[in-house]
TrEMBL record:
InterPro entries: Marvel (IPR008253), NCE102-like (IPR052649). The lineage of its organism: Eukaryota, Fungi, Dikarya, Ascomycota, Pezizomycotina. GO terms for biological process: eisosome assembly; protein localization to plasma membrane. It is a multi-pass membrane protein. This is MARVEL domain-containing protein. It comes from the Eukaryota.
Length: 188
């Protein structure tokens, strides 16, 4: 019974890891000036790491030579990465009061947020963010930064969900290991 739960959790973690990785990579690829923010880069790493750990853990369900303690440790580490990345994105987006508000303050906050503007450069009149448009082009700013804001929110929500399911997966693997549901290889 626990093997079925472990397999289901692993399948869900593969999907969640792929979503986190895809959203983070899309956000990073839209960065036109400078390198992507470290929060986005780290969450891309967390998604890729979680995908690899989930694939190895699914393989470990069928191959008994993979040490379960290593799988549990990798699950915990992947979960910590998910939590750290989700918290980093949440904190970086804290200054943005609303992703969809058309108030001047909300537009200003979205335009100047490093996760949402796609990179900016200093010009003589102030800051210019090519992807987000100029401060005179309010419709373009709203559509671009609102869309990216919602992508960042989706990214960290999936990160928090992956954290919860990663911890659950580590617990199920530990219970399976302790109850003798799977055999482990003896290394001499």
């Amino acid at each position: 019974m626990l093997n079925i739960a472990a397999f289901a959790l692993r399948g869900l973690l593969v999907v969640l890891s792929a979503i986190v990785l895809a959203l983070s990579v899309v956000l990073a690829k839209q960065q036109v000036i400078g390198s992507p923010p470290p929060e986005t880069s780290f969450f891309s790493f967390a998604g890729a790491f979680g995908l690899i750990v989930s694939a190895i853990a699914i393989l470990a369900i069928f191959v008994n030579k993979i040490p379960r303690v290593g799988i549990i440790a990798a699950d915990v580490l992947a979960s910590v990465f998910y939590l750290a990345g989700a918290i980093a994105l949440t904190v970086a987006l804290k200054s943005v009061s609303s992703c969809t508000s058309s108030s001047d303050a909300a537009r200003f906050n979205r335009y100047h947020n490093k996760l949402l503007n796609g990179g900016c450069m200093n010009v003589k009149d102030g800051i210019y963010c090519p992807n987000a448009g100029s401060s005179n082009d309010e419709k373009h700013i709203d559509s671009y930064t609102s869309g990216r804001c919602q992508q960042v929110q989706a990214d960290y929500v999936f990160g928090y969900i992956a954290f919860v399911f990663g911890v659950a997966s580590a617990i199920v693997t530990l219970l399976t290991y302790r109850r003798g549901g799977t055999t482990t290889a003896t290394y001499v």
